[in-house]
């Protein structure tokens, strides 16, 4: 009886391998289904974000509409300058920046006044990317503005975040402490490779910049602003080449306005004053303070061999 009762109450459970296989297959299909919809959701989110205009884009469009008088994008924009109120607003906020290296209101206004009087389209060449770069681009509304920068990586970065800015990098081969020697050599070669009227693209003068894009040498620049490269360090490149290049570009114009406005920033430094005296010339200096010098240069005859007429010269030996 005991053995019989045990056999009757015993239960046997068998797990067939097919049941386990079916459960694993179901889980795989469920995982694939969830993954598919997750990918679709992410793609939809990314596409929607790219197609919705950002707040900054909307603001920029609104400002552009105000400046252009509300004209649509399909309507050609005439070569007109910015309204005076817009210029004054830009100068006001730029001069109140927290950046300790920004220019003063008076300095920026001197350049702004010249750009305002420049017949559009105005050609502006700027040496150096600075705090005021976007300001110069905006003030030269509907004109051509080109920047020259010594740091190729910063130039590429700046152009990437501001694709509307034209920046070209250049390699300076000079040192600030060589200023006296280089200026003396350039003066001695003023009748040859360092002459005031020439195409710098083919120049052998050590102070001439000859590795810029070809079209930079073909433009008749109305305004040139020298605010680079670095000139505050003994081993820095100094601004001898940029000032010399500005002087030659102004003297070598083939058309347009025969006069060129050349501004030199940080005019309190010896190198800037020396090169200004020797290549831009004191008789062309119309405005000056410790930080900004304003010269107005006339184009010269192609056979000219002197940058300046007779005047009291600044000592070069002090920089040698």
TrEMBL record:
Bilayer disposition of the protein: Single-pass membrane protein
Stored PANTHER family: OS11G0490100 PROTEIN
Subcellular localization(s) per the UniProt record: Golgi apparatus membrane
Residue intervals passing through the bilayer: 28-47
InterPro entries membership: IRX15/GXM/AGM (IPR006514)
Major localization class: Golgi
Matching Pfam families: IRX15_IRX15L_GXM (PF21729)
Superkingdom of source: Eukaryota
Gene assigned in the entry: LOC104711557
Record-given protein name: Protein IRREGULAR XYLEM 15
